[in-house]
Amino acid sequence: MCARERGWSRVPDTTSRVRDTTNRAYRATRDGAARVVGRIRRRWRTTTPQERQTVRLAAGSAALGLAVALTAVAVTGPWDSGQRTAERTWAAREGQGSGGKHTPGQDGGRAGLTAPQVLAAAGPAQGRGGSGGKGGTGNGAARDDASQRADQVPPPTSSALADTLEPLLKDGSLGSVRRASVVDVVTGRQIFSERASEPSTPASTVKLATAVAALTAAGEGHRVATRVVADGDKVTLVGGGDPTLTADDLAGLARDTAGALKKRGIDKVTLSYDTSLYSGTDQHPIGPNENLAPVTPLMLNEGRLAGTSRTGSGGEAEHGPAPRTDDPAGQAVEAFGKRLAGEGVRIRGTATAREAPGAAEQVAVHRSATLGALVERMLTHSDNDIAEALARQTALAQGEPASFDGAGRAVERVLRRLDLPLKGAHFADGSGLDRDDRVSAGLLTQLLSRAADPGKPALRPVLTGLPVAGFTGTLGGRYGGERGEPGAGLVRAKTGTLTGVNTLAGTVVDADGRMLAFAFMTTGTQERDAAQGVLDRLASALANCGCRDSPSAG
């Protein structure tokens, strides 16, 4: 083979190598650009609303400046080779001057054009100015369109939520069981899921189910009655299931009872109390505990022992753990008897438990706050005594025995009638203290979504009762540190805590103005505070994330 032939044979090899090198460079550039864009997108989605607004303001200002400059150029045109056409036309009309450097014409005595003359010759400037007046109406329409768009803010995208939440869900402070669900409240559609349909231990977030069931079955305006009935000189205090009964409430009952007895000429009575409304054991499976009194339909101040609980400014019991009596009904009737004696009615012997005679006549009644108010109090302070009472009110409304088992069946039946996702759900109690409770993150977010439905106003206390991060209830002491502050005042959520179990379920309005319901659940945690911190950061990230666009998308 001659040298020339050998040269031609090397041409295809060289071309192939160039092509391969070019392809590799293209792929490397493309992959690198994708990684950079991905990092930018993730960073954008996790910025605070203030940071995002700053970027948008800067980008908007730059775009506005460019638009103004282009408009000015267009208005003073048209242009030809870098010179205004109007100016060139005038220069040609004047004679010898080229106009290239604003030189004078034949008479040599006129200076170059002034700006008003140039603009007048340009022509379109006046037209633009005139249309600008009409454009005022157009701008108003644009503002109306913007307002309408603001009322229809798109929900976050699933991929954007994944970028934001998945890294936090991998935190080692969480247990081996991790569940998450985020729902767009407007549509009820789940937009993020981490095994959201698989049930796990909810702890106190099960109170959301208790609340929705009670409000649906008994009604938001229902009040629980504690009554006093009399049959001759036999007086019976009848429990109706109000754990919030106070000493002042008993004093009012005693005063009304004494007045009715005196009208009948009775000043000495036999006193008894009736707790037959509830059935089954009054002991929760956790046994005697400072978090819950024995569950009876008659109790004073949730069975808290005198002198062991502080009271709020309104005289209501302080919430949280406290030593409890092992006989709440006996404690209540004893306090009632003392108040009755103080009204001048003598009591024979000691009060005993018995069912009120059918012929007995009601002589006094105290009604609790509305069920809606009780739901709010239960959720804000995670009140276990109210939770068990509300579960039994649901059972009574459904014709079930007012017991742990009956309440569980009633709650499930009501929720099933609402077409909620109950696969694998089990309601062993109303408070969440029982580790046999099982619900899914998907169920919790659907409960919250239903409560936000404008067509279901009776469920609104479920939302208004949620603690506010950094301010009220069980979230009052959280979100206070540097890492939690972004969620303070923005997150409203029900907490749940048992040994090794941490949950958080509630609502946020994200940085774009979209209302979202969320539930984060974990089991197998080793350190409570660390796990709670991760859950708080998850909710904060959701509240501060628009999670639907990147800087390039505006």
Automatic annotation (TrEMBL):
GO terms for molecular function: serine-type D-Ala-D-Ala carboxypeptidase activity. Residues 1-21, 81-161, 305-329 are annotated as: Disordered. Residues 96-111, 126-139 have a biased composition (Gly residues). Its EC number is 3.4.16.4. Signal peptide: none annotated. Keywords: Carboxypeptidase, Hydrolase, Membrane, Protease, Transmembrane, Transmembrane helix. Residues 316-327 have a biased composition (Basic and acidic residues). Belongs to the peptidase S13 family. This is D-alanyl-D-alanine carboxypeptidase/D-alanyl-D-alanine-endopeptidase.
